[in-house]
Amino acid sequence: METLKQILPILLSLSLAGLVLTVGLRATVDDLLYVIRRPGLLVRVVAAVEVIPPLAAALLVWFLPIEPVVKAGLMLMAISPVPPLVPGNELSIGARKEFAYGVYVAMALLTIVAVPLVFDIAARIFGHGATLPVRTIAATVATGVLIPLALGMTIRKLAPHLAERAAPWVYKLSLVLVVLVFLPIIANIWPALWDLVGNGTILAMIALSIATLLGGHLLGGPAPLDRATLAIASSVRHPGIAMLIANTAFDDKRVTAAVLLYLLVSMVQGAIYKAWFKRTRAHQPQPG
Fold first, then answer.
1. Mean predicted lDDT score pLDDT of the chain
2. Among 137, 120, 26, which residue's Cα sits nearest to residue 81?
3. Does pTM surpass 0.85?
């Protein structure tokens, strides 16, 4: 069992890095810089992904009588943006590749500064004495995003045909590995996770998930696909970063359970949103 506990984090890191590697295998430099090169769009993306979720979580935490560990889990997920699953989720609904990849890269880079900053603000407001060093998040982003992204782009440049053929397989294998790794993690903390259900916990998590979806949808611009793309980017939070902070700044392991419970709730909400969007789009006249 101890060996498994040591192996799981390594496998999770590898699987998430594989998803990022897929982005590098498929993306051009123009795709990755699409949002950064458009200041107006960048401001809307930052507002949707980095500003609205923490503000919504803070309001819920402030006003709702939910357990402190649940409050911590909500805030941690709210300040932890865009996991590697985001671009794949966005492309599955027909999102523009340059917008999906551009949002991911812009937010990944901003995460290095934004996550410690927002965590520090939230900790001061709610009287938590912990701090989060920038180097902790920088190391996570470098190893989990920048290095596999650069590797994928290098392979694409040197062997474009290989990159094109390999990308779907790398994505599928990485996705399967993510699921296989998360199952024992969920099973291990299931009792703690189940104990958190009730007393308004699920309602608070649903409310936060809806707020993040709505914020991204409203700020996505006039094009329906762009709205859905930003809604997904806003609502899908990074459990890896949230659990890293939970293990660094909190002694209570139930905070990790709250993080994973929110992940499950938001996945259900996201599936409902995508089904609604696809059904709505199917009944709209298509251009051309």
1. 88
2. 137
3. yes
